[in-house]
Automatic annotation (TrEMBL):
It comes from Blautia stercoris. Gene3D superfamilies: 3.30.230.10, GHMP kinase, C-terminal domain. This is Galactokinase. PANTHER family: GALACTOKINASE-RELATED (PTHR10457:SF7), MEVALONATE KINASE/GALACTOKINASE (PTHR10457). Residues 33-81 form the Galactokinase N-terminal domain. Belongs to the GHMP kinase family. GalK subfamily. Keywords: ATP-binding, Kinase, Nucleotide-binding, Transferase. Residues 121-204 form the GHMP kinase N-terminal domain. Pfam families: GalKase_gal_bdg, GHMP_kinases_N.
Length: 417
């Protein structure tokens, strides 16, 4: 299967010719499992990537700026409409889910994928989009609960399915992201921004300014390969699935600082006015809110600097922004370990080991990746150093937890095969 000229062309364009055999086997497995679960018939295929955060750590939820990209790890689905009001979803390795679109349980909160799907369908219907019954079998390569947005990848995959089956492609990527965000806010009680969803939906490297209701999205022509560098994601071994309280405290505290100035989010606060009234913010919002706000303002400027540097091919300046952002996240934003268990510091350990390696070699950059508190770090290293780094980190983190990444140009899509 997946050996026709059209299928080879589509898979090669999304995954690269060097990965064709692997992806053919992967999609053949997907098609076989769908047939086993849902029977014979025509099937459509969908894909949505995970994401890497380049700059803009914890700024999106306060309507700030980010630089982000999709990665060559994705969630894929075989799906077809079933002509009923029922949605059947089987995620490989998990319990099957059935949802009746005519009887959505609005009280079903914080129950994993079930709650997420209900929230997404509810939001899509509220926005006036059509949602019809379908069957889907889903598998993923995106690391779960580790900062590369497995949840957003899944959400954007479902949006692509809804868009193709029922809405003639009329739902744009911003709406995709808002549907996913609504589900996380209302059904996971997680105060996430839109960075994860937008990166997984659009594909490639994008700069986003979330200040306006309609985020400004700019495609940026860039890839680490062009610089002779690898992006290496290291999973530190502890997920952040149980850290919603720590994660949500970041936007809450930033907004508390903004409230001192009568604003809802920090993007609407003038930095000079903030500095002139810093003591007042300390009194009314607390010192950690001040530190997190200072991180926000600094990240805003770093994103602008980095995008300008990429356009001018000033890659030394761009790469230096990664280290600066990482240091700010660790020291100012304070999202490298959870305060509820300060003895668990897997992310700082991985960062410390990486920084020692970079200092010894004299080349490279690193930072905490994603929401933080647990999960993954990102190292950006010259390609000739990658094998040595993997060898050094393997005894501490396990070779199976070290991923050499590529940036993927394709977002959440229906694969026209």
């Amino acid at each position: 299967m997946f050996e026709s000229e059209k299928e080879v062309s589509v898979l090669s364009s999304v995954y690269g010719e060097e990965n064709l055999a692997k992806e053919q086997a992967r999609y053949e497995h997907l098609a076989t499992k769908f047939k086993e679960c849902f029977g014979e018939g025509e099937v459509d295929f969908f894909s949505a990537p995970g994401r890497t955060e380049i700059l803009g750590n914890h700024t999106d939820h306060n309507h700030g700026k980010v630089l982000t990209a999709s990665i060559a790890m994705d969630t894929i689905a075989a799906a077809r409409k079933n002509g009923t009001s029922l949605v059947h979803v089987i995620s490989e390795g998990y319990k099957a889910i059935t949802i009746d679109l005519e009887n959505l349980d609005s009280e079903c909160k914080c129950k994993g994928t079930l709650s997420l799907l209900i929230g997404m369908f509810e939001c899509a219907i509220k926005k006036g989009y059509k949602v019809e019954g379908f069957d889907a079998y889903i598998t993923t390569e995106v690391i779960g609960a580790a900062g590369v947005s497995s949840s957003a990848s899944f959400e954007m995959l479902i949006c692509a399915i809804m868009n193709y089956f029922s809405n003639e492609g009329k739902i744009d990527y911003v709406e995709y992201a808002k549907i996913g965000q609504y589900a996380e806010h209302e059904y996971w009680l997680k105060q996430s921004g839109l960075l994860d969803q937008m990166a997984c939906a659009v594909g490639g490297v994008i700069a986003i300014d979330f200040k306006e209701e309609m985020p400004k999205v700019e495609k940026v022509e860039f890839g680490y390969d062009k610089l002779g560098y690898d992006l290496i994601i290291v999973n530190t071994g502890k997920g952040h699935a149980d850290l919603s309280e720590e994660y949500s405290a970041v936007p809450v505290e930033m907004k508390r600082a903004a409230k001192v100035f009568g604003k809802e989010v920090l993007a609407d606060v003038d930095e000079k006015e903030f500095m002139a009234n810093l003591n007042k913010v300390r009194e009314e919002a607390g010192d950690r809110a001040v530190m997190r706000a200072l991180h926000f303002f600094a990240e805003q400027k770093r994103v602008d600097t980095a995008v300008k540097a990429i356009k001018e091919e000033d890659y030394a300046t761009f790469l230096s922004c990664i280290t600066k952002s990482g240091n700010s996240s660790w020291k100012w934003l304070q999202n490298c370990f959870a305060t509820k268990d300060e003895t668990e510091q897997a992310v700082p350990v991985a960062l410390a080991l990486t920084e020692l390696f970079i200092e010894e070699e004299g080349r490279g950059y690193c930072r905490v990746h994603g929401g933080g508190f647990a999960g993954v770090i990102a190292a950006v290293l010259p390609k000739d150093l990658t094998p040595k780094y993997v060898e050094m980190m393997t005894p501490y983190m396990g070779e199976e937890n070290i991923y050499v990444m590529q940036i993927r140009q394709t977002g959440a899509v229906h694969l026209d095969m």
